[in-house]
């Protein structure tokens, strides 16, 4: 398929190259400056760098909008397209409706569920891609496009994607923050963070193959009041952290009862 | 060295076999019943199964107490030993002082920092072992023993081990619980938990090589109030989870400011 990409950031960077490598043609890349767009088109033979949103002069089966969430609506509003193109955004947290109604185009979502940075290579084959279309035809076409770069393609509605995003906040954003708190505690005790690494990896591996609630360990699930009291005392200079400790402990204990 | 082991649970199981495999001799294993002790001594040529705590009839450079935290004090109290032995427990959360003072023995801690289950093989070489002794000599001997099975041996005091344990609660126990919450949310939305697995693994990998606070992503760090409001609404039937979400969000935002 012929694909135009709006954006030259981390997602655009990997998706554009992934699509080109699997037999699709990236025909144009837009960024706010030609220089930024060219950095990516330099890697994509045949692609045109653009600093305007008029795509009527290039072939576009699909136009992918890979820009920050807050900019999607405004970009979609300014697009000039050849009728019959599909316009899809790549955001996990935004509904399909943020694109509004675009004259002559079906709309959709093409969401690669991974964090990207330009420096780090990504095996897109293993990255889940969640698609949604405003019409049956758009959904099918986006699925077909996703299947050309990934083996893990799912059709997920905006409503379900919102639930997925909430689950990802718990599993990734909050987990990352807890790992940060843990490293800070180790640092204060003058201990290397590497010490906990094998245990962290084992925790994740086990959670991937079991229901985490059934393999929960630690003072909360054991109801070990002395250890919990000791820990709260160690945190006495940080009331917010104390409160987070208490509530997570309570949540673990309620899961045991339920 | 000649080692006797009190306990035949998960830790005893792996540590005993690891010690035997690296040229030490496990001379005895105690459990409350001979049958349980024999299950382990059957795998350890030369080891005697015991259902009493009198170790005066076997050679013991070190006696390792690998029993539940609550039983350590009582076990240590009942031990009958050959003077000159070192008595060490294997617990992460208990201070060396829980062993009390044992006539004729130095005391210590020999703590393998990993979760063990009998079924799952463990590469002890990669498991950090934290040791502490009541005397310089005991510390050295326990370090030497630990180095025979692991490349990651550290001398850590009881005070620091307590801090480490607190850090492990955040990084492992609480993280595991968040992964459980996440899986439950996915299940409610009829989505497979495998979807988030690549993102979770990437989160952990990144946190191992960066300061997690500097690579934080998600609505909290972006200050995305609309998404946060949406998420809190999705959790409206679970006030505890709402509160955990709010406090972790606040903690992420305070880290950004600090």
Low-confidence stretches of chain A: none
Q: Report the β-strand fraction of chain A as a percent range.
A: 5-15%
Kindly report how far apart the N and C termini of chain A lie. 51 Å
Helical content of chain A stands at 40-55%
Q: Total number of helical segments of chain A? A: 9
Major beta sheet summary of chain A:
8 strands, mixed
Indicate the multimeric state: homodimer
General description of the model:
The structure is a homodimer of 258-residue chains. With 258 residues, chain A is of the alpha/beta class. Chain A is 46% helix and 14% strand. An eight-stranded mixed β-sheet of chain A has the order 3-2-1-4-5-6-7-8, with helices on both faces. In chain A, strand 1, helix 1 and strand 2 (25-30) form a beta-alpha-beta unit. In chain A, 48% of the residues are buried. At the A-B interface, helix 5, helix 6, helix 7, helix 8 and helix 9 of A face helix 5, helix 6, helix 7, helix 8 and helix 9 of B.
